[in-house]
TrEMBL record:
CDD domains: SDR_a4. Transmembrane segments: none annotated. It comes from the Bacteria. It comes from Thalassospira mesophila. This is Epimerase. Residues 9-213 form the NAD-dependent epimerase/dehydratase domain. The lineage of its organism: Bacteria, Pseudomonadati, Pseudomonadota, Alphaproteobacteria, Rhodospirillales. PANTHER family: EPIMERASE-RELATED.
Amino acid sequence: MSNKLFCFGTGFSARLIARKLRAEGWEVAGTTRSTDKFDALIAEGITPFQFADGVAVANIADALRGVTHVLVSAPPGGNGDPVLNLHRANLAALPAQTWVGYLSTTGVYGDRNGGNVDEDGELLPSGKRGRRRVAAEKAWFDLGARHDLCVQSFRLAGIYGPGRNALETVRSGRARRIVKPGQVFSRIHVDDIAQTVLASIARPHAGAAYNVCDDDAAPPQDVIAYACGLLGMDPPAEEDFATAVLSPMAASFYEDNKRVENGRMKRELGVNLRYNSYQAGLQALLDDILRKSTGDPGEN
């Protein structure tokens, strides 16, 4: 039987995972909130389905027929996990030990006042988005335990990659250096998310949770300064978090201060990070930009 992946949500991370599996001969289908994105998914060999909060996949039986793996990146909302709200019974009917990957967030740990945290740490989310993630993770693990599905959760740090990184922020003129003393964030390049998920598919562990982050938690202002240095630009002036004008969403990212440990993904899945620091990741992204600007295709 051939492998078939179904993605509930085909965004930045899930789309790269889908492309990599397509290159290995997998059949891939996935959802998008709007039919406007169907053509783009079809061009990548992904069979599209529409799915949005409160709007079920119209032909879910066809969508899940023959599926061997399910990837979930749709975030929970105020009413809980949208996939489970609408399609719990469909997922429960999948064959035993079907692989299910849930893309979660390190926000489930909440604030550690700059200390370290691993997957055995208590889940103490700071805000409503983190609390929703904790509840969604529990619901997915419960589904797996009740219906013999191989569910694992990937707790992602701050995601960056092509078109979505500090270099682009600096080049667009939107960069700010907000300084909150002692504050550090963990990050992860989207390529390393993809390799971790693929490693889990090869070596599944039902009920496991994995922190997916690099080895270098760092202050956000340092990342912006480094990106400016790579681009030969002067960094923006530092701003004190206490007096900086931030949107509620932007301010919420500073609620949690922790160093996330990633040893489990290395031990259990054999992950060897391609970009173990933001410096390595940003340098590679800049190199890729420069190659493309000169017409050099680089690596295939």
